[in-house]
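Rotation project, supervised by the postdoc (A.L.). Task for the rotation student: set up a whole-complex structure prediction and record inputs and outputs verbatim in this book. Inputs entered:
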Amino acid sequence: MMLSVRDLKVSFRTDDGLVRAIDGVSFDLEEGEILGVVGESGSGKTVSLLAVMGLITDPNAVIEGSIRYKGRELVGLPARELRRLRGNEIAMIFQDPMTALTPVYTIGWQIAEQIQAHQRVSRSAALDRVEELLAEVNFPNPREAMSRYPHQLSGGMRQRAVIAMALSCNPALLVADEPTTALDVTVQAGILDLVRKLRATHNSAVVFITHDMGVVSELADRVMVMYAGRIVERGSRSELFTDPSHPYTRALLGSIPPLTGDKPRRLPAIPGSPPSLLRLPKGCAFGPRCPVRYEACDAGKPDLVGASHAAACFRMAQA
Amino acid sequence: MSEQMTGTDQPILETRALSKRFAIGTRFSAEGRRVVHAVDNVSLTVRRGETVGLVGESGCGKSTLARCLVRLYDITDGQLLFDGDDITGKSLAELRPVRRRLQMVFQDPSASLNPRRRVGDLVAEPLRVHGKLTPAGIRERVAELFDLVGLLPDHVGRYPHEFSGGQRQRVGIARAIALNPDLVVLDEPVSALDVSVQAQIVNLLADLQDKLKLTYIFIAHDLSVVRQVSTRIAVMYLGSIVEEGPSEEVFSAPAHPYSQALISAVPVVETTPSGRRKRIILSGDVPSPLKPPSGCRFHPRCPVAQDRCRTERPALVEHKSGRKVACHFPTV
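Outputs recorded:
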C-alpha cells in the first residue's frame, strides 16, 4: 500500500466556532492507481488532500487521524522531513497554474530550480532534463519554451509547464486538484491524456480531485464521492457509475444533462444547496436534500458500509 | 407574404456582418497600435421563442458578441436589428425603450449584484428606472418576481451575501425578467454554480421561457448544458461562426471539423462499460486573434486541412435547410 489514510479529521477554529471540514475520511491508494475524488465546493475534497500533503499550515487547524505514506506516518512529521517528500516523492498540481509559477523567472529557470532543490545535478544537466520534460508534456518547441515567461504562455501551456515541474522528480504520487477546471474541453482532453501517460510510463499513483463526473469516469480506476466533509460512496469506476448506490451519487449523476440521445424535458435536479459546515444537519448531512430520507437519517451520521463498493446511507444499509 | 410577417417567423434579433474590433496598445508600445478582431463578420438570426446556444473555447468571442447584442459594446461594423428596428448606432437615450425588452444575465451573480443593497431593492431597480409603477405596485411586482424565480417572500430584506450561489443567480434572473423582456442574453449563467445546483437553474430558465414566452441566447462552455437548453446552436472559433444549425443535428452529426473535435472532447459519464467514444485531440492552442491565420482560421489545427484551406477563407454557407457550415470540406 502506497498511501493509507485512516479516520482523518481536519477542523478549523473560527470566530463562529469549530468547523469540522473533514470528518473521518479513510482511503487507500495502490501504486499506479488513479483515484478520482468528486465533490462540490465545500465537500472537503481539497482540504483532505492538502492534509495528506502536509500543506495545511493554518495555526487554527487541528489535524487528527493517521496518514501513512509507504508505511511512514506523516501526521506530526517535522516540516523539514515533509518538505523532502514533497516535490520529490509526492507532487501536486493546482487549478490555477499561475499560483505555482513565479511571473519573474522563465519557465526553464523555474523547473530547473525545482530539480536542483531535490537532486544533486549540475545546472546544465538540470536544464537538459527540463527540455526532456517539456517535450514529454507535448510542448512543440521545448528549447524555445524554456526561455518564455509564464505570461507569454496560454492557460493550457502553463498547466502543462506545471505538470512538467511536478513530474521533474518522477513522483510516486501525484495529487492533482481540479487541474483542468479552468481549461477548455479541447485542452482538457490533452491534459487527461498526459495523466494517463504518466501512469503508464512511471507507474505513478494519481489522486485526481474534480467536480466533473465526466472527467472521473474517463480517468479514474477508483472513485470516492465526498459530501460535507465525509465520504458518502466509494468504489471502482464501473461499480460507481453503473450501479451508484448513495442517493447523492445517483442524484448527481441524474442531474447532468446527457450529451447524446433523448433529452429530458426537465432535469432531475437536487433541491436546496450544499450545507454550510457551520450549520450541518444533525443526522446525515445529505438528509435535507435526500429523496429517500426517513426517521433513522436524523438520528446519527451513517458510516460507510461495504467492502470494495461502499456507501454511507442508512436506507441502503437497511435494504 | 403576410404569414412571414407574423408568428414565429419574424426574427426578434438579427445581426448582419457584425464585427467588433478592439484597439490595444498605443503607438508608443513595443508592438505599436494593434487591432484585435474579437467578433468578425457574424450574421445570426434569432427567432421568437427559440433558444440559440453559443459555444466555443475561451477567447472565441462569444461573450464579446453577447455584449454587442445588448449594446453594452459599441459595434464596429455591420448591423444589429432588434425586432426589425436597426439599433446599431442608437444613442443611449434612444436605446432606453429597447433595453426594457432586451436583458442580460451574467455569469457571476456575486459580481453583478451590489453587496450593499437588499435584494428586494436590486430587483425593484429596473422597475423604478423604467416603469411607471407606484411604490406599492413595485412591491407587488417584486413579490411576484420572487415567486416566479423560486425565492421566498421574506428574502426581499436580505443582502446578496446571505444567499447561496444558486439563489443569487435567481436574483439575477428576477432582475433580468422584471420588465417582461422579449429576449434575454444569458452569459454563462450556470458556470459558477455547484453541479447539484446547475440543474435547478437550467429547469428554472426552461419554466420561465414557457411561462413568459421568452427568447434566449444562451452562452456556456459546458456543451451538455447548452444541448439541454438550446433549440439551435452556433459554434464560434476565433470571432466567427463556423457552424450553425438545429441543436440536435449539430450535436449528433457535427459537420465542421472544429465542432467535431469540440464535441468529442467533452468527457461523459460512461454508465455502460462498453467502448469509449473516439476522441479527436486538437494540436496546439487557439491562435491569437491579433494574428489570425491566413485562409481558414482553423487550418493550423485542422486534421483534414488541405492547400486550399491555407489560402482561401470559407464562407458560412447553408448546406441543408437551416444548417450552415464554414468549411471547404464539411461532412454534411
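Student's summary: The CA atoms of residues 109 and 264 of chain A lie 52 Å apart.
Supervisor addendum: The two ends of chain A are 32 Å apart (CA to CA).
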